[in-house]
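[09:14] KT: can someone run the structure on this one? pasting the chain below
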Amino acid sequence: MEVFYRTHNYLIEHISENLVRRALMDEIDWNDRLIGIKGTRGVGKTTFLLQYAKERFGTDRSCLYVNLNNFYFQGRGIADFAGEFQKRGGKVLLIDQVFKQPDWSSELRKCYDRYPSLKIIFTGSSVMRLKDENPELNGIVKSYNLRGFSFREFLNLQTGNHFPAYTLEQILNNHEQIVRTVLSRVRPLDFFQDYLHHGFYPFFLEKRNFSENLLKTMNMMIEVDVLLIKQIELKYLSKIKKLLYLLAVDGPVAPNVSQLAIDIQTSRATVMNYIKYLADARLINMVYSKGDCFPKKPAKIMMHNTNLMYSIYPVKVEMQDVLETFFLNTLWKDHKVNKGEKGTSFLVDGERAFRICTDGYRVKHNPNITYALHRAEVGHGNQIPLWLFGFLY
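[09:31] RB: done, structure tokens below
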């Protein structure tokens, strides 16, 4: 146990003081006894746990961080470890990569039943279905999603500002006033292309080649998060990877499931299942027409965020696709986004039409459409700078 305390203290003492404080930190009800934080690989779940520990407990031994990558847990269950931790005065146990233990959900249930005074906060992959696939956790776990950096968080990190997030209604109704406040301190367009290229994943801060690091992370998402959690045999790995590549190369269009099935030598049903797994892993987004949903074929498939586009197939990056991917990704957190009707890009929450406009597009001033303008620093009326939608979280 002392080894885990020493590791915890080392990590807390060496966490950077300059990290952006994620908005999710204030959205979680920390009074709950069992809290699950899901997120795609690379978005900063480990750092998030350590920031929480440092902010609330410092090096107080009542809080302990452990990573189930440690081989110690191959021979010992979470519940037994939690019991020993509580006997030593432990109150909050932070468990990273909980899915690395095969029976993790039943172990967490034991902890919940045996140790009513112990709080457990754990991280897991976005592929996990905490309640649907783990009925023993129904009614006791509160689940949250940690996303990659928003443009707002990226801008704050790069400039030292502390701009707040805004709701969609605030942006639609007060965008001119909000923009004036932002422009009084910084020129957002000076940072926007950098964000599109490498700003979504926090590891751009590391002194390594970002694209190579992201490609490595994408492979880990498929090899570990998809295959391990979904219990898919290793021999099918190459098919899933090829499918992702083909979807990226095709661009944001409706998938030709029959052709994809031929290309990766599997059935149409399996292709659709693989597409769903890639969406769960936050590698792609499935965009449906209003009223449709899985298991129907999506109206189009888009990469989950713009950074992926520049890494997986950089020779074919169309700016219109990049801008629409940015908009979709930032709206996805709190809104339902469907494929737009003719002349529009998206339908948001079933009623509001948006057109994403590249530089030079001649706006036709349709009052029923909101225009998100790429290189506009300011807007007016129903024409809004695209970058401002990056302030939604």
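[09:33] KT: thanks! The longest strand covers residues 119-125.
[09:34] RB: yep, looked fine to me
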